[in-house]
Amino acid sequence: MSLKPRQAFMNTISSFSDYQQHYNRSIENPEAFWEDVANNFVWKKKWSKVLEWDFHKPEVKWFIGGKLNITENCIDRHLPKKANHTAIIWEPNDPKDEAKKITYQTLHDEVCKVANMLKANGIRKGDRVCIYMPMVPELAYAILGCARIGAVHSVVFAGFSAGSLVDRINDSGCKLVITADGTVRGDKKIELKAIVDEALKKCPSIERTIVLSRTSKLPFMKEGRDVWWHDEIKNVDAHCPAEAMDSEDLLFILYTSGSTGKPKGMVHTCGGYMVYTTYTFQTVFQYQEGQVYWCTADVGWITGHSYIIYAPLCAGATTVIFEGIPSYPDMGRFWQAIERHKVNIFYTAPTAIRSLEKAPLSFVERSDLSSLKILGSVGEPINEEAWHWYNKNIGKGKCPIVDTWWQTETAGFMISPIAHVTPLKPAHATLPLPGVQPAIMDENGKEVEGNNTEGRLTIKFPWPAIARTIYGDHQRFRDTYFSTFPGKYFTGDGCKRDENGYYRITGRVDDIIIVSGHNLGTAEIESAIDEHSAVCETAVVGFPHDIKGQGIYAFVICYNKPNEEDKLRNEIRETVSKIIGPISKPDKIQFVSGLPKTRSGKIMRRILRKVAEGDTSNLGDTTTLLDPSIVDEIKAGAL
Q1: Domain contains 410
Q2: Side-chain-side CA neighbours of residue 285 (13 Å)
Q3: Distances from the Cα of 564 to the Cαs of 560, 568, 570, 591, in angstroms?
């Protein structure tokens, strides 16, 4: 018997004084604060205790003894009033194709059918399912279908290689793969099933592969293992009771890069994840009934899990799933889609913003963006120049930009402005959200108090969505996140806290360059270089320097190929000197046409470090790069 929530959670922070009151209460009595939030969801059984934790082990449990199913909160509880409301808008790769609008009732029926299809193919509660699919509605059905029956989903971005798929399937011991014959991104077609076939030669745990027809290509189908989605789905009905899950049962495993090269399977559980991600979604975006929300990320990453699928649907929102890329068929695709669907909240990455900024403004001006109310930034610190372009040309100076800081490990927003509430400061994530207790640590492990400080960012109290472990390797979890500063979660990021207590993320600590005894954040130097009018994007790394210890090497992309490189180098150095100080001037500036980025937009800095150090004999695995050929160009032009 499900316990009815008091009401669907509504925004209660409407002013900065509200924020301060909520934040203070969340710090003074975290358990009471989060219990109040959790009471707004559907639970099959109430918890007996709110929290148990020990950051030394480390071990965290939230809503202990509580029973729920997250899909009842994403779908079923909305049906009495919202059965015919749009849950998902699917924007296909080609804008000439018709977009799809999926109601909450249709979503319920399709998720139940997929859940029954999984059960018919041998999947039970606790089994791991690998999902390697395009950005289509069936991807959402597959994720929620797993959650409906208590299967643990492990989504792998449908751009990773067969080798990456092997690592993730074998590490988690997946029993079944859901994939498609292929996918389309821009004008490129990728044969997903062929990649899966190659991977499964080394994946003995896989018993079944379910294949969605997306490109109408007929791939190889192994008898006894491979079945078609459309054949299986017609054999099941749309009734599937939701499995009762313990609050601490596994919901999903999502792999993120590790410093050793071996991916880390971050484990997220049912109850705390649901409560925290939904609360942060509604709070940060100030989501209002009926608004259309679009996060441009891929569901293969944590942003897609938390803020395309689970949190928006738990909030009863309309969420957009986008199959394409921002530059296809031209650089106006995002803006056309915003007009097409009357998008109110737009959440994208600085990488996308900077690339679109390079295009003529006419691509923006031809679309009506008047529906926009709120803008967001995710994935990396946004530099000031991109922030101002985004604010002026997309938000028209009327839409607050929520610059969110968070991680795969945190599952949800940690430090972020609250739209229309927090006074904004370009390139600053601003203030911690309620329930988040940051602490800045110096190199000696001592907390740095007060404002106008900098150091390493840690969190000293658990929040409901914190990852519980690395799948199958709790010791690695402890060593990675809890050993550097005992009793605290170490984010791996450096940060500054300004005179108002606002946080600015300065980049990974391993991206700190120590020049003549001064700790310099690469993100800060990059942001300064980007302020030069000729510069589009920058990546900075350190290299050995005989006098300084480390020198600064900058890889710079310009809007146009520079005619006088040395002159531009001097101008860039002067720009950095003015913004940060002479100590931060780059020693070497190499002009490049692109940077070595993964398909998620992350710069693979270890390659740039090798080039800067003059050691290009072994650059390691480059198969996950969007364009591996850019590495050869960078090597050839090394200074």
Answers
A1: yes
A2: 33
A3: 11, 6, 10, 11
Is-contact 362 341, C-beta < 8 A?
no
On whether the CB atoms of residues 245 and 65 are closer than 8 A, the answer is no
Quick one: 332 and 203 in the same domain? no
237 and 358 in a common domain: no
Lowest mean pLDDT of 69-73, 171-175, 505-509, name the range. Answer: 505-509
Q: What predicted TM-score, i.e. pTM, was given to this entire model? A: 0.85
Task: Let me know if residue 5 belongs to a domain.
Answer: no
Q: Which domain holds residue 62?
A: 16-71+250-506
Secondary structure E strands in 80-150: 86-91, 100-103, 128-132
Whether residue 117 is found in the same domain as residue 150 = yes
Q: Are residues 436 and 534 in the same domain?
A: no
* CB of 458 closer than 8 Å to CB of 490: yes
| Cβ neighbours around 441 below 10 Å, total | 18
- Concatenating the DSSP letter of every residue in 264-317 gives EEEEEEHHHHHHHHHHHHHHHHT--TT-EEEE-S-TTSHHHIIIIIIHHHHTT-
Residue type, 544: P
Measured between alpha carbons, how far is 347 from 307 in angstroms, rounded to an integer?
Answer: 9
CATH number of the domain that residue 112 is part of: 3.40.50.12780
Instruction: Tell whether 1 is covered by a domain.
Output: no
558 contacts: CB under 8 Å, gap ≥ 6: 534, 535, 536, 568, 591
Distance of CA 472 to the CA centre of its chain: 23
Domain boundary (194, 222, 243) is at 243
Residues 407 and 483 in one domain: yes
543-596: pLDDT as tens digits: 888 777 788 999 999 999 999 999 999 999 999 888 777 788 999 999 999 999
The tally of domains found in the chain comes to: 3
